C-alpha cells in the first residue's frame, strides 16, 4: 500500500501536515504535483510567479528525493484535468499491485480549488481510498473564529480579538521534517514514476526572490532577529527595507504561516500583543492574512468578482475612452502623481509592491480615477510574485470601500500628502521615477508644470480636489439608491 501526497501551493517539507502524516503511516510515500498552467492563465496569474513556482518545485523535488520520496509531475492543464490525472495515476498503481491506501493534501480555500478537492474525495470514497485533508494556510481554520451568533466576522478588529481568544487551542510548534519512510520505493514504482512523470520546465534564477526552502527559513530568522525590532516604525516607509519580504514565500507555500507566527510569538515572549512593538505589529499583519482567508471561505462570492458589500455593486465606475487612457497611464506609472508612479514601476520592475504603496495606488485608481477595483485587482494579480486571491482581493476591496471594513466610503487618501509623509525625502520616488531624481526633495512629491516639462514627466492626469468630490458624489448616489432614496442623477464622467 502507498501513501500519496498531492502537493499544491505548499512547496516545502518543513511543517507540511499532509506530508508529515503520510510519512507516519509506515508505508512508501509517493508525491505528485499537477502543472495546471491553463488554469493558472484562466485565473490571470503572471509568468513571473509561474517561474517562481517552477523554481520552487525544483527545490521541493530535491528535498523529497533526500527523503526517499519521488515527485511525479503531471501536465494537467486545468483543475478538472488534474482530478482525472490523479485518478488515472491511482488506477495505474492499483493495476501494478501497488494500491494507494490514502490520498493526503493540504486544503486550498478558493471556490475552484474546493470543487476540485470535493470531486476527488467523492471518487476516492467510492474506491475505498482514504482521504486526509489538512489546514496549512491558516493557524486557526476558517469557520472557527465566529461571533456569538455563530456568524463570520465582517470587520477585522473584532475578528482579531476573537482570534486571540482561540489561539491557545491551535497554537503548536511547527512540524519537523518527517522521517524518511521505512519501506523504500520499489524499482517497479520508480519505473512508473519515470514513465508517467513529465519533465519540470527549467529553473530560472531570479536574484530578487529565492525559492529554496532553507534560504526562506534563514530570511525569516534574519528578519525576526534584526529588522522586526523596528518593524512598527519602518513598515510604512517604502524607501527603507523595513518589511520581511516573505509574502511571495507564503503565497507559494515555501514557508507556513504557522512557522512565521509561532517563531515571532516565541521571540515576543510568547505574546501576541504587547511585548516588542515591532514583533507585535508583524504578528498583527499575519492575523490580517488569516482574516482575508476566513472571509474567502465564509463568503465564496469573493472568488467570483463580487463586491463584499452588495450595495456597492452599483458604483458607476468610469468606462469611457478617457477612463481607458487613465487606466493605461496608471498601469505604466505615468499618472503625474510621483508616489503612484513609483509604486507602479516598482511592481513592473520587481514583481512586488510595498504594502503602503498598494493602498495608495489602489485608492488612487478606484477613488481618483473612479475605475473598477476589479481591473486593478487583475493587474496586480498578473504582476505580483506574491499574487494571492484572498489578500489581493481583500486589499483592493478595502481600498475601494467595497470590502470588509467599517470605515465609510469617504476615506480617500491624498497621494501627495501620503508621499510627503511616508517618503519625505523623495528617496523612493527618485529610485523608480528617474525623471524626478535631480529635483529637490520637496519638489519630487508634486512637481510643477515647468518641472514636469523640463524633466519629460507627465502632468497630473486628474486634480485631487475634483477627483475626491467626484468619488464622493458617485458613492453617495450609489448608497442612496441602495437605500431606495430618491436622488437626482449626477454627472459622473
TrEMBL record:
The keyword Flavoprotein applies. Residues 1-139 form the Photolyase/cryptochrome alpha/beta domain. FAD binds at residues 231, 243-247, 282, 285-292, 386-388. Its cofactor is (6R)-5,10-methylene-5,6,7,8-tetrahydrofolate; FAD. The keyword Transport does not apply. GO terms for biological process: response to light stimulus. The record marks 317, 373, 396 as: Electron transfer via tryptophanyl radical. Binds 1 FAD per subunit. One of its GO terms (molecular function) is FAD binding. InterPro entries: Crypto/Photolyase_FAD-like_sf, Crypto/Photolyase_N_sf, Cryptochr/Photolyase_FAD-bd, Cryptochrome/DNA_photolyase_1, DNA_photolyase_N, Rossmann-like_a/b/a_fold. Keywords: Chromophore, FAD, Flavoprotein, Lyase. Belongs to the DNA photolyase family. This is Deoxyribodipyrimidine photo-lyase. It comes from Bacterioplanes sanyensis.
